[in-house]
Model the fold of this input.
Amino acid sequence: MLEQAIGDYLEWMRASGYAESGLKAYEKILKRFLWFVREKGIALDDVFTWDTVRAFQGRNPSTEVQRVLKKCARYLFEHKRITRPLKRQYYKLPALYEQYVAYYEKAHQVPSGKMISIQRVLSAFNEYLEDSKITLSRIRIEQIDAFLAEFTKPFKQSTCRLYRSYLRGFLRYLYHQKRILRRDLAPLVVGAPQFAKAIPPKFLRPEEVSRLFCKMSQHLSSQRELRTYAMLHLAYFLGLRPREISMITLDDISFTRGELSITHRKNTTPLTLPLPDETLKAISAYLIGGRPKSEYRNLFLALKAPFIPVTPATVSYWISTSMRALNLPSTAYWLRHTYAQNLLESGRSLYETKEMMGHTSIESTRKYLHVHLHLMRKVLFDEKV
Done:
């Protein structure tokens, strides 16, 4: 029964347009999970629990395991194949840690997903201290470094930076608010120096953009082509991320005012953007000739039953496929980067570009100066260009 359910889930992923590389990765993890469940003789009701997931991850130490199993469990629950989904993991923490979590959540008003990540780091930190028999009030920076070296080993540099910042916040709290630490250790929590230069964002030249849209506009005879063409418009003319495109609903679009409300942004700040006429036409063409009838209000849907909302991976895959067909070795984010370049070249300030792009930090926007050479010279050398 479980084997059939997982097989159905993989078929649904294939029908929804997931990239072949992603499908293979999911299939590999799910097959190993199925073998693990059989070997242990785990009852169906206990398959998708955190105890089972942690036991399986102990044998398969991959950062993708939890994400894959959560998505699979959610699909199986929605299709009534299991009785409950794999809910967010709750990390039980000592009272002092719980006080910090409550303090941080109240002070910063952050989404629940970020709070789960903070709890994950603090839980691992507490376990490390207990296993090493280290008293929190007497902890030294070398012990913190040893914990981070072990804990962050499987993660990318960007994730490691994030986890270090979570731990710094806790250490500041212990020093400034609770007076538990004799000195502020937060400034000492730093990563290894990175000597490589930052890789500048990649973008398309004007002639490449013209070639892309000209070619796509000549091939709009199928549902998939109409859908991809509308996605391309949103990625290029509004600079939207694949996730933001996938979460647009019909209620977010105002055809009379020519506006689009983006409610699901990475920085959690909603934004209303004007829709160019050509983008409105592309969306309208998709709604009339490409969008299947469905109970879902999402703008972009799968092309095969059950016509569910597309995933960010689907958006990325079809935009990238259309670009590679024209020998443009690029991804959906190239269009977003091109949008940022256009904003800077049109005279928009870094702050205005930050708001339009939905960046949390101005530093994320500043990297585009690496590419916009004229503006970089003006900022750095005060040249008139």
Q: What stands out?
A: The chain has three domains: 2-78, 95-188, 206-381. Residues 20-40 form the longest helix (21 residues). The radius of gyration is 24 Å. The first strand starts at residue 253 and ends at 254.
